[in-house]
Amino acid sequence: MALLRPMWSYGIQIWGSGKPSNVRTIQAFHSFCLRLLSGAPWYTTNDSLHKDFCIPTLKKSS
């Protein structure tokens, strides 16, 4: 998260105008990183991961 968060914050203004497919790709990578960090099983929802880490999704933070 220490690597992704500064890049995300730097580019936050362009995420709102980005193509939905690109935004989904970035969000999927972010959720994948959270899943790896937590060791959560596959059936844990991405919303739960974001809530547990207190990290907003891309849609909520833009």
Structure notes:
It comes from Aphis craccivora. This is Ribosome biogenesis protein TSR3 isoform X1. Helix content is 68%, strand content 0%. With 62 residues, it is mainly alpha-helical. The protein has one domain (3-52). Helix 3 crosses helix 4. The radius of gyration is 12 Å and the shape is globular. The model has no long low-confidence stretch (mean pLDDT 79).
Give the helix/strand layout.
Layout: H1 4-10, H2 12-15, H3 20-38, H4 46-53, H5 58-61
Question: Which key terms come to mind for this protein?
Answer:
68% helix, mainly alpha, 62 residues, 0% strand, 5 helices, globular
Number of domains: 1
**Amino-to-carboxy terminus distance:** 18 Å
| SSE run | HHHHH
Total helices: the number is 5
Helix content: 55-70%
Shape: globular
Largest sheet: none
The secondary structure category is mainly alpha
Overall mean pLDDT: 79
Round the Cα radius of gyration to an integer and report it: 12 Å
Number of strands: 0
Strand percent estimate: under 5%
Protein name: Ribosome biogenesis protein TSR3 isoform X1
Please outline what is shown here:
With 62 residues, the protein is mainly α.
